[in-house]
Amino acid sequence: MEPTNRSDDVLHWVTLSMILDYLINEYWFEELSELVRINCFKNFPSKESSLKYLRKTEWARLQVQWLYVRTVLEKQ
Questions:
Q1: pLDDT tens figures, 28-70
Q2: Is 41:33 a contact under the CB 8 Å cutoff?
Q3: Residue 39 — φ and ψ, nearest 5°?
Q4: CB–CB of 29/45 below 8 Å?
Q5: CB under 8 Å to 24, separation ≥6 — which residues?
Q6: I need a surface site. Which of 8, 33, 52, 67 has the fewest CB within 10 A?
Q7: Please, is 22 exposed, middle or buried when counting C-beta atoms within 10 Å of its C-beta (0-12, 13-18, 19+)?
Q8: Distance between CA atoms of 15 and 39, rounded to whole angstroms?
Q9: Looking at domain 12-75, which of 1.10.3300.10, 3.40.600.10, 1.10.720.30, 2.40.128.20 is its CATH number?
Q10: Are the beta carbons of 11 and 17 closer than 8 angstroms?
């Protein structure tokens, strides 16, 4: 099996913190809570509480990563 070429991977070298910074800047928490329905974006939103939740909750983290990839690719 050949190693995967990671240069095409949009998430390569991108941390969850960097993803949140990008999405918060792009959408703000109000729109983020509509796009990814998790309470940490809706009730008393903060980057710190969102990071804590997303690190523990795989399904939510995958949705946020998917939104990031979709948003980045749409801008290209």
A1: 999 999 999 999 999 999 999 999 999 999 999 999 999 999 9
A2: yes
A3: -60, -30
A4: yes
A5: 32, 47
A6: 8
A7: middle
A8: 21
A9: 1.10.720.30
A10: no
Between CA 34 and CA 30 the distance in angstroms is 7
Q: Which amino acid is at 54?
A: L
Query: What phi and psi values does residue 63 have, to the nearest 5 degrees?
Result: -65, -40
Q: Which two tokens stand for residue 30?
A: 């109000």
Q: Tell me, what's the pLDDT at 4?
A: 53
Residues 6+ apart with CB under 8 A from 22: 68, 71, 72
